[in-house]
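As the work plan foresaw, our protein records have gained a structure token line. A representative record is set out beneath this paragraph:
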Amino acid sequence: MLAIPFGLFGLIIGSFINVAILRFGARALAGRSACMSCGKKIEWFDLIPLFSWLVLRGRCRQCRSRISIQYPAVELSTGILFALVGGAELVPIAKIIGLLISALLIAIAAYDIRHTIIPDAWVWSFNALALLSAVIIPPYSIHDTLYSFLAGPAVALPIFALWLVSNGRWMGLGDPKLALGIGWLLGSLYGMVALLIAFVTGAVVGLLLIFFSSDFWNRFASQFIPHRFWYRRDKGITMKSEIPFGPFLIVACVFLWISAMYGISITFL
């Protein structure tokens, strides 16, 4: 039953994460929220996590402009992840660190999707917490502690090599920094599996985005699908488009992390 209050708490934290994503590097976190279109201050009853967005049908109460799907997505994701961590059988310190890691991973993923960059302050905070969890939960011998420490660099090395060889064209430097923490959080074996899952899912999603941005799809869609569901104003996704890799790393990491937390065996390992 602990999952429910933790999940509700996660919805509230998700709302603060949205504020942090929008204001990071631009303005202070303090101050009331306002509509991005009309600039009107948002009343408290329109700031209830997830509920307000659903009631308003994703539009501003004042100007009726669309409210980004990012808001409910981040709130719901945080609520679900907090419920999973809160409901797991963990010692209190592990649960606290797990909640902090959850909030940081969601913030990093959403910010990377929005800006295609990973803030150093957030990724290094995640790395510090991941390393802390690796060496103190549960207590390890010196040999195990050394092994846990080396897991981070081992997982980060392949992505760092790709960044180095491509001179930053294939992926940003934030990705190997993120992989460092993933290695510390999951260990070397699960960390490498997370890399594999991220590369495969990233490739599949990238190809699908390219396909749905192609002229072939537009010609096909115009014949069978209503205009409002397929029309795009920009040029869409191409082979030269920049698609953030961080969210794929994070989804793979969270999948394996929660699976291990609940003792769920990954059959292909």
